[in-house]
Amino acid sequence: MTITITDNADKHRYEAHLDGQLAGFCEYNLLSNAVMFTHTEVLPAFEGKGVGSALARHVLEDARAQALPVIPACQFIAGYIRKHREYLDVVQPASLRAFHIN
Question: Pairing state of beta strands 70-72 and 21-30?
């Protein structure tokens, strides 16, 4: 099984495909000085296959590569950052306390 993640800018979301089928997505709003992740969803048929974690890792790495601070309004992304503290550096400082990440 191969998870492929692409940015569907027209829909303001990253999409994860597993073996060619849409498996999940992470919606975002691109702001002038940050990216706000608002919702992550894994389709029921693909739960438990690592799709959500792959999405979270990808979107955070992409934000880091673009030097865009992250506002993790999405509970899944905020929770992922809490567990994977190596991504604290990409979180907009004001968001650390707002989303209980510190």
Answer: unpaired
- The CA distance from 30 to 86, in Å, is 22
Q: How many domains does the chain have?
A: 1
* Runs of H (alpha helix) within the chain: 51-65, 75-83, 93-98
On whether the pTM is more than 0.85, the answer is yes
Binned at pLDDT 50, 70 and 90, residue 37 comes out as very high
CA–CA distance, 68 with 36 (Å, rounded to integer): 10
Cα distance between residue 44 and residue 25, in whole Å: 12
Residue 89 belongs to domain spanning: 3-98
